[in-house]
TrEMBL record:
Top-level lineage group: Bacteria
A molecular function GO annotation: ferric iron binding
Positions of the UniProt region annotated as Disordered: 1-72
Biased amino acid composition, Low complexity: 1-36, 44-69
Domain Ferritin/DPS, first and last residues per copy: 82-216
Family: Belongs to the Dps family.
Protein name (record): DNA starvation/stationary phase protection protein
Length: 228
């Protein structure tokens, strides 16, 4: 017998597709941080105007050598300059004391004493420039300030509020005698170094100083009852 077509073929079981591994879910994307706006660069400052180049400072000048040429030896210049500078300090001190007494004298003989002391102060002051210039002529340096005078002078100051007129004259008499002695010492030094020019000046000043001493002595003598 012929198999009937009715005999239905059993439907083939559907092929089961091989189960594919489940695809991994993509990881959740991290939110992208918003980019910070780029910081604006500060506007460039306008270039400062170039400062003019500072003028070059002049090189400091060297102090000129003050050693005036002289035929005297170095020892002579050193010793004579020191002696004359000290003498100059004494002359200034005596000048100022004489003017001090000239300004502050008081009493019945005011006019005579006042004029006498003014004359003597003028004569004393006239010595100062020749002494200082003599030091420079022989190549030395001399006093430069009141402080310098104070450090080397030998004539004492008198700052008393009031001095009796006759005491003023007696004190100046002794100071002039001392100045004469100081000048003789410098004269001896001039002889040692054959400094004839300085010695010649000193000889005249000694004579003037001795005359001042004489006038001060006679003016300050106390008269007897007869007025002599």
């Amino acid at each position: 017998m012929k198999k009937t077509a009715a005999t239905a073929k059993k439907p083939a079981a559907p092929k089961t597709a091989a189960s594919k591994p489940a695809a991994a879910k993509p990881a959740a994307a991290k939110p992208v941080a918003a980019k910070k706006p780029a910081a604006k660069k500060p506007a460039a400052k306008p270039a400062a105007a170039a400062k003019p180049a500072a003028a070059a400072k002049p090189a400091p000048r060297r102090a000129p050598a003050l050693a005036t040429p002289s035929d005297l030896s170095r020892d002579a210049t050193r010793d004579l300059s020191a002696a004359l500078s000290r003498l100059l300090a004494d002359v200034f001190a005596l000048y100022l004391k004489t003017k001090n007494f000239h300004w502050h004298v008081s009493g019945p003989h005011f006019r005579d004493y006042h004029l006498l002391l003014d004359d003597q102060a003028t004569e004393i002051f006239a010595m100062t420039d020749p002494i200082a210039e003599r030091v420079r002529k022989i190549g030395g340096n001399t006093i430069r300030s009141i402080g310098h005078i104070g450090r080397i002078k030998r004539i004492a100051d008198n700052d008393a509020e009031f001095v009796q007129p006759l005491d003023m004259l007696a004190e100046l008499q002794e100071d002039n005698k001392s100045l004469t002695a100081y000048m003789r010492e410098v004269h001896d030094l001039c002889d040692e170094y054959h400094d004839i020019a300085t010695a010649s000046l000193i000889e005249n000043w000694i004579d003037e100083t001795e005359q001042r001493t004489w006038f001060l002595f006679e003016t300050s003598r106390r008269g007897d009852v007869t007025g002599h």
